[in-house]
Structures are given as structure tokens and as C-alpha cells.
Amino acid sequence: MSITVFEGASIFDGDRLHATSTLVVEDGTVVDILPPDEAPLGPRVLLKGGTLAPGFIDLQVNGGGGILLNNAPSVAGIRTICETHARLGTLGLLPTLITDAPETTRAAIAAGVAAAAEGVPGFLGLHLEGPHLDPRRKGTHDPKLIRPMTAEDLAVLEDAARRLPALLVTLAPEAADVGQIAALTAAGAIVSLGHSDASAEVAAAGFAAGAGVVTHLFNAMSQFASRAPGLVGATLAAEGVRAGLIADGVHVDPLAIRVALAAKSAPDTIFLVTDAMAVAGTDAMSFTLNGRTISRRDGRLTLADGTLAGADIDMAASLRVLTRDVGLTLGQALRMATVAPALALGRPDLGRLSAGSAADLVHLDTDLCLTGVWRGGVPL
């Protein structure tokens, strides 16, 4: 039995902030949150103010550490992505495959199954973003590789959903019918609508068929207008539908974030994603996707024509945008990076610091800069 006491910081447990408290960890598991004078004896981790919180959870991570999953659909590639983002405070994630050829999709699925079997730390499952999208809302996805879902595609995805710890599939309802959406949901996949020019009515039919998530709200989708509410309007109006959001100050204006949070008033229905690319955790200024160069400049990742190609931000920086520019409290922002994505994944056991939960921790200073990361109570 090994007890460690974290002290000297406020603690966010997933539900609320505990003013200057101690977190008691035993053998990698949270025991309790206690006032300083009630903490048991044991080794101390002395924190200099700031906030101790659950490790971040990110459901859209295309790459990091110099690689993209598309370019390295292997256990080694998944491990590199997970290790890179762990150092940035994200201790649970879905490596994300952007639209690619069928053989690359199959390789990524096989790698995900193997990574789960090997217990790669931080690997929670896969996110397949495409190829069944609407080319009118392609974003950075290669239009030559976008295509409607076939019966064979559906069978591959159903099998993957049964074999992976979790499978999130982003599709456009124009490229996959309601029967296919229902079949994927029945197989255990989490279906997310995205890269879509669907009307609000078509989107609502997708939700009714089982799609319960929307990919990077506002981006690469039909927008809200007074007589054509689009996928944005359908998402904001739909009860129980959750949405990922990139809070980098580039993809979505802070005012639009405030409006979305006001419209989706049910708790935890909007969660943070980074949409991180290969440059995450590196100083690299460019990388390639499907043979096209993506450049990094001034907090943006773009193709040569200026199209946004993922985001150049990590979770801690996203928290700074939410608190500084959007006006959220620290607790509200932290919940969007921990509990909310865990619930979208169907994992209420993650993203919290409560008795019995894994001691996966991050420490943020008063400026919300990351100063420490622990997996199972062990520093990284």
C-alpha cells in the first residue's frame, strides 16, 4: 500500500472546485479529497497554488509528436500520439483518422484493436472522421477520397465497433442513410454528424436514427439562417445531442460559443476538442496530409489556399480562451475538457476525481498554464 497526498492547490473533482484541499491517492487510485488538517501521513506532492484537476479527455486528435494517424496507422503511431498529448495534459483520447483510402481505414482499425489489446496508456478508442462526408463541406478532407457509405463500408464499421473500446464515426447524413446510422448505433458505434450541408430536417432525421454527437460545431457544416437553420440550428435545438467544439479563437468566435452554450442549456452537451494535428507537441512548421502541405503560422494550420486544416491548440490553451474570452468560470471550462467529453464517449467513470477513480491528474497555475501531469499518481 502506497499513499501520496497532493496538497497546496484547489481541486476540481469534475463537479466542483474545492478551495485549497488535499487529494489522497493510494496505489494510483483516488481515495478522498480532504481538508489539509485531515490528510493522512504519507509522501507529499507540494503544489504552489493553482488548480489540480482530472486529466483532459479529447475525442478528436488527428496527430501529434510529428505524425498523423493517416500517415502512421499503427500501434506505434497511436502510442506516439497518446504519449505526446499526455505531456500536454490529455490523458485519454481518440486518435482520429481523417478521410483516407479504404485500406488506410482498415489499417487504422486493426491498429486500434491491437493498441487496446496492448493497453496503450491513454488510448480510449478510435475516431473515424470520414470518408462518408459531403464534398460541399469537405474542409481539409481530400474530395477525391470522399464517398457515400456502401454495404461493405457499413460491415467494416460494425465489426470495428464491436472490437474497439469505443468507435466514434463522423459522417454526413447525405452520405449515409438513416438505416446505416441506425445499424452503426446498434453495433455500438457513436455516430456524429459533421462535414455536412444537411438541412435541419435531414439532420433531425439522423439524430432520430441514433446519431447523438456533432463534430466540431459551426465548422464544415450548414450554418444557422432564419429560414434555413441547417445542421447548426438542428444541433442547438436537439435535446440530448452533444457537440464537440474547437475553442482556439480561430474556428469559432467567442460570441458564437456563448450563444451555443446558452442554447444548449442542458449540462455537458458541448465539449472541447483540439482537432490537433502532427505539429502538436513539436516546433515543426508544416506537415503533409494526403500529399498536401499544411502550414503552421500565427496559431493557424492551413492549406495553401487558406483552408483551415485542424487546429494549433492544446486543452490548457483552450481553457484560457473559454475563461478569458468567452467568460466561463474555471469550473465550467474544466468540465468541458473532462466530464463532458467522457459522457459523450459513454464513459461516466472518466474525467472525475472521486473515490475509486484513476489518479490521472493535471496541475494548472493561476494563469491556466500546465505545470504538472500524473498518470495513476505517477508524474510524466
TrEMBL record:
Keyword Metal-binding: yes
Record protein name field: N-acetylglucosamine-6-phosphate deacetylase
E.C. number(s) listed in UniProt: 3.5.1.25
Segments forming domain Amidohydrolase-related: 52-367
Catalytic center residues: D275 (proton donor/acceptor)
Binding note for cofactor: Binds 1 divalent metal cation per subunit.
Pfam families: Amidohydro_1
